[in-house]
Amino acid sequence: MPSLRQEFRFNDDFTVTPEIKQKFDEYGYIIVRGLLDKEELELITKAIESPDGLQKQRYSLNDPEQRPIDRVIWNHPGNDITGMLARSEKVAGTSEQLMGGEVYHYHSKLMMKEAKTGGRHMWHQDYGYWYHNGCLRPDMMTVFIPVDPCVKANGCLEILPGSHKYGRIEHKFGTILAEADLERVEAIKQQTSLVYVEMDPGDAVFFHCNILHSSGPNNSDLRRWVFLSAYNKATNNPVKKHHHPFYTPLKKVLNDAIRKCTVLTDITGKEFITPGTNSYIIKPPEEQP
């Protein structure tokens, strides 16, 4: 895979240096290769594939072409191995260093595009949604960790580097998914270069909530499952009640807690988001409670 200027390699001494912070601020994202080692990746994969755990909360939403994207979304990290991952220094701690202050867990999710059938995500900003949740500032970010190879053929992440600097863009809200103003997106494309973020399992991309991103459909024979955790700065507590948490102190753990965790499928306290039982299905701002 080609090397990118904002690409770094994880090791036991990894920390956010001034160079890494500068790249994140400039491009709106960084890639960290090998964030999870082979053993950690095997444990996480076993946990998320288990029919006794997160898969019980799985549901599907369709893209505009009626192709499904399956997902599981939860608000609190919990004490299982996926919780250890979301609370770890190399995920949550790195997010704090990139954001420049304390963060809390806003939510985590699995996004699952099955081979041949998986749908696409339209161009959007995460803050296109989160702004309407009462988060006043774009002091938020997401960590995207594939458990399968993510390549162009199976609908990898697509990013417009530096697009976070254009601020929040108006989004068109449907019954399920939002899409950024395509006229504005096309204009921004003329000033930057689209990057297909191809990744190996266990790599990670840390990206700002205002970065424009999308992903194509999965027309390949390769499954594409991804684990994501979103974080909000403690100083950006939402001003209205919605389907994700207000500020909740995050109890970070050392990186070896992932490998040491023996609890793979305990979903206690995670507070899952499911259609019909909460406000996950986004409505236009004027229709929000």
TrEMBL record:
Listed cofactors: Fe cation
Gene3D superfamilies: q2cbj1_9rhob like domain (2.60.120.620)
Pfam families assigned to the protein according to its UniProt record, in alphabetical order: PhyH (PF05721)
Name of the protein in question: Phytanoyl-CoA dioxygenase family protein
